[in-house]
Design brief:
By secondary structure, the chain is mainly α. It has helices spanning 27-45, 50-58, 63-84, 91-111, 121-141, 147-163, 165-177; strands spanning 4-5, 23-24. 64% of the residues lie in helices and 2% in strands.
Length: 191
């Protein structure tokens, strides 16, 4: 599964690949991404937590919000597990993992009859950016985000959105993934 990863690391938006030159992930970055996503899938599909994810996806009647929340909770849990194991996940890996997780959760939402995102890319994109913002708020509250860098990243995203480049980049990222959901589920995550 080849991923487009950003040239720079750092905050989730800065390391998001949203720049004009996303690059191929290094083997080390790809391995870390695969392990991160595998750990996320373990959390989502564990028999004890799967019913809670389905309830969260319903979002109290707002499935887009539920999708964002489920994604944020999953990535935050994986990041915290990695931290407890002595490993800090870079922003670009968290961002790319979040993209894969939200797509998988969107498929789960459709399979559960909650909402089918296959023809609602804008709703999926909106939920993804809500998840990114929720994650930023969570990390900010924990003192783990450089607010100045975040503001620069947000300004860049807003400029790209205004010019139409953001949608092109997001669609390019989705097209470059090309991997079937769950391919990394069997990987043995170190954290």
């Amino acid at each position: 599964m080849d991923q487009m990863m950003p040239v720079q690391g750092g905050s989730p938006a800065a390391g998001s690949g949203m720049g004009t030159n996303p690059r191929q992930a290094s083997d080390e970055e790809q391995a870390l991404l695969d392990k991160t996503v595998a750990k996320a899938y373990e959390i989502i599909y564990e028999m004890k937590t799967a019913p809670a994810f389905l309830q969260t996806l319903q979002g109290n009647g707002n499935p887009d919000r539920g999708l964002a929340l489920a994604t944020t909770q999953t990535i935050a849990t994986v990041a915290q597990a990695a931290e407890r194991a002595g490993q800090t996940l870079p922003g670009n890996v968290l961002f790319a993992a979040g993209k894969e997780v939200i797509e998988d959760l969107a498929d789960l939402s459709a399979e559960a009859g909650i909402k089918d995102y296959s023809k609602e890319q804008d709703a999926l994109d909106g939920a993804f950016f809500q998840a990114v913002d929720d994650f930023r708020i969570m990390m900010s509250q924990n003192g783990r985000i450089d607010q100045k860098a975040y503001q620069q990243d947000l300004n860049q995203l807003q400029q790209m959105d205004g010019s139409g480049k953001l949608e092109q980049v997001l669609r390019g990222l989705a097209a470059s993934d090309g991997s079937p959901g769950g391919q990394a589920r069997e990987a043995d995550a170190p954290f």
